[in-house]
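Structure tokens
________________
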Amino acid sequence: MGHTFPGATVPFGMVQLSPDTDTVSYATPEGRYNPDVYRYCAGYQYDDPTIVGFSHTHLSGTGHSDLGDFLVMPTVGPLRLNPGTAARPGSGYRSRYSHQTEVAEPAYYRVKLEDPGVLAELTATARVGVHRYTFPQADDAHIVLDLMAGIYNYPGKNVWTFVRVENDSLVTGYRQTNGWGRTRTEYFALAFSKPFVHYGSRNYDAKEPYRGFWGRFDQAHDWPDLAGHQLRLHFDFATKAGEQVLLKMALSSTSTAGALRNLRAEAPGWNFDALRRQGQAQWQQELSKVEIQGPPVDKDNFYTAMYHACLSPTIYQDVDGQYRGLDQNNHQAEGFTNYTTFSLWDTFRALHPLFNLIQPKRNADMVQSMLAHYDQSAEHMLPVWSHYANENWCMSGYHSTTVLADAVLSGTVLAAQAERALAACVATARHRWFDGLGDYMDRGYVPDGRSGTSVSTTLEYAFDDWCIAQLAQKLGHADLYQEFSKRAGNWQNVFDARIGYMRPRAADGTFRAKFDVLSTNGQGFIEGNAWNYSLAVPHDPAGLIAKMGGNRRFVPHLDSLFTMHLPDSFFAETEDITREGIIGGYVHGNEPAHHAAYLYNWTDQPWKTQAQVRNILARQYHPGPDGLGGNDDCGQMSAWYIFSALGFYPVAPASGQYALGSPLVQGAKLHLENGKAFIITVKNQGPKNVYVQSARLNGKLLTQPFLPVAEVMQGGELAFVMGARPASYSK
């Protein structure tokens, strides 16, 4: 399951206005994790028969979740303020729907809600969600605003909610939640195109010991000043047949005044179609940065990937540049746009390198946002998983260092910021208290028993340290280069040469005796097994190949990754991987193996990279609701597709080179921000012609399967000639 959402948003928009199809609690009645909730990371499941409502914030492709703020639902008939159930939608405000009436486009979503007979249409600006509801004739039409609803929800997640009814068509307020984002406050301003006749609320708070003297007022009916933990509101109308009622909800992390400024700046009128056209023009601009030639199915896959790659990170500031910082104070972004939603364990691999190529200004702003996070962090850490003015501490490593190093080395970040970036990277990598880092610094690895992911964390630290070393070398810091180059070799300390795999190692230096190279459960790895993670040395493939016995032993070993058969017990341990999401033992849906197919380039058989890349492209991506072989992970799965379809991939960000693969496109043109273009031509392209016969960069024959990043960023031409049989680059 890709965990993507179909609703309306603009590129990197702060609002993701999308349907939610069920309300599944994060916990069971006994207080344990409810595995069913995992299906709803993005709020929407294609197979569900009902829609609960339309909320304004969603994560795309994640394997954990939050958000689902400010759910809105139009209803007709007797007022119901509970969502009801999928089996009995009439028991609440949810509605049945059909995919036959569902339309999803960039910046636009439409569906017919069958039970109230309301046509729902959604569009968005960067900070405003816009709804257009076409009602039947009704004296009892309602719009429900559910401030209890949320994704990965549970009792007590709402810390506090405040609502102020300003007049008969404007409502402001905020909600603070304690979820994945531990202290997350979101403000809103909600405007209606038609004055409501009456409004009301219900407070679902459990009995509290103190409520002050508010009990003297009837807060359930037409009361403008509301607060509590669990609130739902309704706004009542009389409608004519075919009458359209529009809503605009602006968001802000700073204040209701900020939300109002965002509303007035981005959606001052009520022209829904003009806002839709405006949003779609923004998407056209982003998607047109790469033009490809190829059959329709390949274009469907490619531009779907481009779309998903431009959903996050998300803008996180008001129109005037104010944003909520990690210290929970409001800050002013000076000279950059502030971003959040940094799923760095995933996106350092290909998404940020893609931005360096086709979105360098935006990626520079993202780097500035990470440095602002560092400045505001009580721990003085660069972000690990940054989310709405919170550090989630999700996954492992400190991969923001890789993003910063790659951005500086590629020239994306100005020289004036480079020293600041290096200092933040070094400080982050020296925090002994963080996730076994003290042991790693002392012993050269994270010991088994100190961390449940000791091996994968060691491997991730080693790569991040290598990136810091490259940045230090670039800036002339020989001492730091030596320090972090030595640390970059720590991957060797968890490699057990006796079995040829990475393996958990105790503090006394002994390798764990009981060990399963296929299992993903309790073996020292995060979202992976020893088979995939033993290849996770992207900064030193040659060294890894030598450790594994050279080409003679390594190539058959890598071959078997793509041909082995995994037992059913493997899938019982994984939440997000099915048999359809793997090729042999290669797990494309989990990112640690994303570079694996490209490792043949460091052997004497690089054509096997070409064959496997095309195999993965064909089997792990296709149009349809089940078209991704795993979670899209904030664009990383899609960035892999984009690079690989173009014919090259950043195996080691910060290395200054791409590894060549096998282009899927028939041709492409990348429009670079410097005004130049990088053109890819492909002769003899076809489903059987997966092997590169020759590759020329600006007319010069490439004798090795690598491409310098700097030359690509300056524009030029990469010319492939394809064939049905393997060939040497040196021909």
Summary: The longest strand covers residues 158-167. The chain is about 25% helix and 25% strand.
